[in-house]
Amino acid sequence: MSVPQRPDGTMLRWSANAPLVGIEALAPPDGVLVMCPHADDETLGCGQALAAAAAAGRKIVLVLLTDGEGSHPGSQSFDRQRLVECRWAELNHALAILAPGRSIPVLRLGLPDGSSRFNAVTPPQIAQIVSVARKLGRPAIWSTWREDPHCDHESAALLASHIAQRTGLSHWSFAVWGRFGERRLPDEMVRFHDSALRPVKRRAMDAYASQLTDMIDDDPDAFVMPPSLIHHFAHHAEIFIRER
C-alpha cells in the first residue's frame, strides 16, 4: 500500500456534509464487536467512538486479525517476536487510555500481516467470534472499510460482513486509508466527533510509537506515519459507513 503524504480524497471532501451522530447511533446498549486488521487501526479509525462507547458503559470486544509483525520487515533490532510483543503492549496501552478502568477482551486470530485473506479464518475461529457476539447480546459490529486499499483491512471487513450476516447484527465500517484518494462513495456515511475526546484519542495514538515515530530506526523501508496524517487522524471526525 502506498502511504499518502497529505490528507485529501473523495471521502474527505464529501464527509464534511455527512450527518454528525452520537454514540447511541453506532453502539447499541449491548456494546460493540470491533474487527481490526492491526493494532492501531482501532485508535486511528474509531478511537473517539471507542472512548465514547466505553464512557457510556458499552461492552467492547476486539477481534485482532494480525499481530502486526509486517511493519518493519528489515529491522535487525526488532525481530518478529519482539515486534509482536511491542505492538501487543502498545495495543493494551492504547485501550487503557481509551477505556480507563475497563477490561477489553482481545481475540487474536494470528493471520499473516500484509497477506491475510478472509478465507484463512478457520471454522473454529468463526464459531468463536459468533459465540462472543451472541454472549454480548445484540451488539453492533464495527470493522475497517472494505474499500481501504490494504488486503488486511479488506479481510477484516469481509469477516465482519460474514459475522453480521450469520448473526443478524448491524455492521458499521470505519474508513482508515480509504478516506484518502479517489474512491467510490458509500451509500450511507456518518461522522462521529466529540471535541472533549480529541485529547484522549491523541494520547492513545501516542501509545503507538513503533508506528508513528522512528523508534525502530534500522529499517529504511518500514512504515512510519507522516506527520500530516498524524495530525489529521488526531483532529478529523471519524467516518463510519453503514454496511448492514
Overview of this protein structure:
- With 244 residues, the chain is of the alpha/beta class.
- Helices cover 40% and strands 15% of the residues.
- The protein has 9 helices and 7 strands.
- The protein has helices at 10-15, 23-26, 41-55, 80-98, 123-136, 151-167, 198-206, 209-212, 227-235; strands at 32-36, 60-66, 106-111, 140-144, 171-174, 189-192, 238-242.
- Strands 3-2-1-4-5-7-6 form a 7-stranded mixed sheet, sandwiched between helices.
- Strand 4 (140-144), helix 6 and strand 5 form a beta-alpha-beta unit.
- It is globular.
Tertiary shape: globular
Q: Residue-averaged pLDDT, rounded?
A: 96
Largest sheet: number of strands, sense, barrel closure: 7 strands, mixed
Proportion of residues in extended strands: 5-15%
Strand order of the largest sheet: 3-2-1-4-5-7-6
Number of strands: 7
Euclidean distance between termini CA atoms? 27 Å
Taking all Cα atoms into account, the compactness measure Rg is 17 Å
Helix and strand element order: HHEHEHEHEHEEHHHE
Counting helices, strands and paired strands, the structural category is alpha/beta
Helix content: 25-40%
Count of alpha and pi helical runs: 9
Parts with pLDDT < 50 across at least 5 consecutive residues: none
